[in-house]
Write a structure and sequence with these properties.
binds 5'-O-[(R)-(carboxyoxy)(hydroxy)phosphoryl]adenosine, globular, five-stranded mixed beta sheet, Nucleotidyltransferase, domain 5, 2 domains, binds zinc ion, alpha/beta
């Protein structure tokens, strides 16, 4: 079965064709990062306009590169939530028109379910149930993957998402948007023990995250250094910050896996590209006898192959959208 996936929830216009949920035939991503970088973050209206300009060409290229024609496609899967509303509306409207014109079923896909599904594209043996740490620009979750289309969120962030924290801290210490990759690179030249940074205590669910205290601590250190005419060592701060985030994410995930009894753990979302997070989580999973699955770097960030993959499983589960499909800016994984 061939699924055409379409993704436009943030600043990447993407389309892909995936066979039987596991094999990528094409994967096209048009990124807008360079333009948003000028403003230090994503400008929603610019994002919508660029999606609108690019989506036809991106989808056309994905179909051509797959070696198929539109006639061979079995269903169109599209990200309808969560994300920037204007950006999502471009993808959903385009997908609706295409599905209607080509007489194909339309499958609505949740963006975070897509990030999780990126793991199926590179790990043939991965099957639910398992536990997944999702860390992206907008979300930080610990999720029980009960089945391909059934999720239970047992940990969530109380404030900033992990990727958002990378981006905000990065801006203060002088990196361009999005700062995650720059911090990752700089941390390789820095001392991770140079700065002592706080790990938040979160009341309530032991699996919940909080990153705003860590962010504020880095900002205060940078401002204090400035006031006394000094500057922080950027590489050392990057390394210290990355180590702290990796520890927070890993400790909670390992605790959740131990408590729930899952022996299989996966990582997903843009921050899953982070070398510090990947290394520490791998080390701790090995120590505890858990098998860890991580997406390859090219599938960590936003792409449509992951949407086509999740769309395949949603299709098999009978999920369909009609011409009234709307985009939703905020939607829990548990309500899809
Ligand atoms: O999943 P994603 O592409 O978009 C959302 O759905 O939010 O995640 C983007 C986030 C950004 O905050 C970016 O800084 C972060 O992922 N990111 C990284 C790395 N690469 C991307 N964070 C840390 N280390 C990286 N290597
Ligand atoms: Zn994403």
């Amino acid at each position: 079965m061939y699924i055409l996936g379409i993704e436009s929830s943030c600043d990447e216009t993407a389309a892909a064709v995936v066979e039987d949920g596991r094999k990528i035939l094409s994967n096209v991503v048009a990124t807008q990062i360079a333009e948003h970088r000028l403003y230090g973050g994503v400008v929603p209206e610019i994002a919508s306009r660029r999606h609108s300009e690019n989506i036809y060409a991106v989808v056309d290229e994905a179909v051509k590169k797959s070696g198929l024609t539109l006639k061979d496609i079995d269903a169109v899967a599209v990200t309808y939530a969560p994300g920037l509303i204007g950006a999502l509306l471009v993808g959903t409207s385009f997908a609706k028109g295409l599905a209607l014109a080509a007489k194909k079923p339309l499958v609505p896909v949740h963006h975070i379910a897509g990030h999780i599904a990126a793991n199926y594209l590179s790990h043939e043996d991965l099957k639910p149930p398992y536990l997944c740490l999702v860390a992206s620009g907008g979300h930080s979750h610990i999720v029980e993957i009960l089945d391909y289309t059934k999720f239970k969120v047992i940990g969530r962030t109380r404030d900033d998402a992990a990727g958002e924290c990378f981006d905000k801290v990065g801006r203060v210490i002088g990196f361009q948007y999005p700062a995650g990759k720059f911090i990752d690179d700089a941390s390789k030249n820095g001392n991770p023990n140079a700065y002592k940074l706080p790990k938040p205590v979160v009341n309530g669910s032991v699996y919940d995250f909080s990153f705003s205290g860590l962010k504020t601590a880095v900002i205060n250190m940078a401002h204090h250094a400035e006031q006394v005419g000094e500057s922080i060592n950027r590489d050392d701060m990057a390394a210290s910050f990355q180590k702290t985030v990796a520890e927070i994410l890993t400790e909670k995930t390992i605790l959740a896996a131990k408590d729930t009894g899952y022996k299989t753990v996966a990582l997903a979302g843009g921050v899953s590209a982070n070398s510090g997070v990947r290394e520490l989580l791998q080390k701790e999973c090995d120590k505890n006898g858990f098998k860890l699955y991580m997406p390859p770097l090219f599938l960590c960030g936003d792409n449509a192959a992951m949407i086509a993959c999740q769309g395949y499983y949603d299709f098999l589960a009978g999920k369909r959208a009609d011409a009234s499909l709307n985009a939703i800016a905020t939607l829990s994984l548990e309500n899809i």
